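[Help] Beginner question about ligand-bound structures

Sorry if this is basic. My supervisor gave me a protein sequence and a SMILES string for zinc ion and asked me to "get the holo structure". I don't really know what that means in practice or what format the answer should be in. Inputs are pasted below exactly as I got them.
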Amino acid sequence: MTIYRATVLDTPVDERAVWERPDVLRVESDAAIVVRDGRVAERGPWTDIRARRPREDVVDLREGVLLPGFVDAHAHAAQVHVLGRPGMPLPQWLEECALPEEERHVDVRAAHAAAHDAVATMLAAGTTTALVFGSHLAAATEAFLDAAVAGGLRVTAGPTLADRGVPPTLRVTPAQALAEGRDLLGRRHGRDGVRYAVVPRFAPACTDDMLAVCAELQGLAPGVWTTTHVNEAPDEIAQVRELFPGDPHYVGVYDRHGLVHERSVFAHSVHPGRAELDVLAARGARVAHCPTSNVRLGSGLFPLRRHLDAGVRAALGSDIGAGAGLGLLAEAREAAAVQQLSSDDGVTLTPARLLWLATRAGALALGEEEVGDLSVGRSFDAVWVRPAEGSLLARLLAHADDATDALGRVVTLAGAADIAGVWTRGARVVPTCAEPPGR
Ligand SMILES: [Zn+2]
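Answer (accepted):
No worries, everyone starts somewhere. Holo just means with the ligand present. The predicted complex, written as structure tokens, is below.
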């Protein structure tokens, strides 16, 4: 048993509360969190808990703030090595960056290196749970699952599936996708904290036969998630219209195959029609908003207000590697900027709402009841933001008016270098023994 002493900020509320009230931040300054068997067993004021537990080990995290681990609802593990490329339109990005990089993973050493770096990058940015598009190649996806288990990252992932519209190296036939998916799902789903996701790349890269296989795979076991892209860019939407002339719209293609439901997450949704939002809402499906990617690829401004009005729930995704790659804090600050640019339609994203989007919203989208805030009973998945001594953020935090103001500064200014510690299931995963000491 260990007691963590810290200023703890979290947002233990559901969608209704967060959009009805601007400030849903729970603040406990000088709190004690008692962790037993990886879970929050007790929490409360430090003086009360210490008086009752005078002999337990204490980890002092009083500098900075302790937040719940971040939940990334959309990332491509195989694209970690193309992070930081200049922005460009989606078709060019796929052709010049994303797909050539994914092809390199036929070399198993490249796949292992990317898997390791993806996990390390995400954890270092404070991401403790993620919904991940694996490689098109099943063996490379398995390398990612191994790296996630070894690193302590909680993942829902599966191989990305495409039977057209991508280079031949990355194509699989529907029969092959079914056989490989069945095998990988049978061996990995529900074991070592891994959950399986069925991942059609997007409708332009999947025939009806492939989408039918996706439907079959998602029904193989309880708790299997389904994730794909939708309505990201105008070119892509026009392509879907051409390839699936019988369907009413893009979401309708997935819906016809039974892929739109409460265990599915659709990345982007930048250009949805009202009828599409109604289908997403009626099925209980969620959307992963990826603001840094949308801005860098020039995809557009995410219409959060229209999603909320239609009853569609959203979380945040990094979209590694099209996104800026600095994790969910970077996504949160970009989300706020996108809403500001959305003029009359923009939703005010307070620091509390941004923290909620980066944590609890993702947990709800992934059905991960163990994470999302630091309430009693949840897993101790946490991020300690402690800016380096003398840094701008450290100086500004010293001048913050209150906890909400401090959180606003953290969201706006913190980078991976300010993340001093990350825990999943009660185990410290950043820094790890392999990293140099000093933080
Ligand atoms: Zn993506």
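A couple of things worth pointing out: The pocket of zinc ion is lined by residues 74, 76, 229, 267, 319 (CB under 6 Å). The two ends are 23 Å apart (CA to CA). Feel free to follow up in the thread.
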